[in-house]
Amino acid sequence: MNLHLSLGPVLSLITGIIILIFPKLLNFIVAIYLIIIGFIGIFGHGRISL
C-alpha cells in the first residue's frame, strides 16, 4: 500500500487540532495567514514588480 501525503492537508489537520485545543490561538493564526497572503499578493511570489 502506497501512502502519499501532501503538506497542505497535513498542515491543515495539525492546525485544526491545535485550534480545538487552544481556541484563542485562532486569532493569531488568521492574522499571520492574512499578512502572508497580503505580502505574496503585493510582491508576486518573490518577484517585485513596480
Q: In terms of topology, how is this protein built?
A:
Elements: H1 7-21, H2 25-43
Descriptive overview:
It is a single chain. By secondary structure, the chain is mainly α. The chain has a domain at 24-50. The protein is built from two helices and no strands. The protein has helices at residues 7-21, 25-43. The protein starts with 6 loop residues before the first helix and ends in a 7-residue tail after the last helix. The mean pLDDT is 78.
The portion of residues assigned to helices is 55-70%
Uncertain stretches of 5 or more adjacent residues: none
Instruction: State the end-to-end CA separation.
Output: 50 Å
Q: What composes the largest sheet? A: none
What is the mean pLDDT?
A: 78
Strand content: under 5%
Number of helices: 2
Alpha carbon gyration radius? 15 Å
Q: How many β-strand runs?
A: 0
Shape: flat
Secondary-structure element sequence?
A: HH
Which structural class fits the helix and strand makeup? Answer: mainly alpha
Offer a quick outline of the entry.
This protein is mainly α. The chain is built from 2 helices and no strands. The protein has helices spanning about 5-20, 25-45.
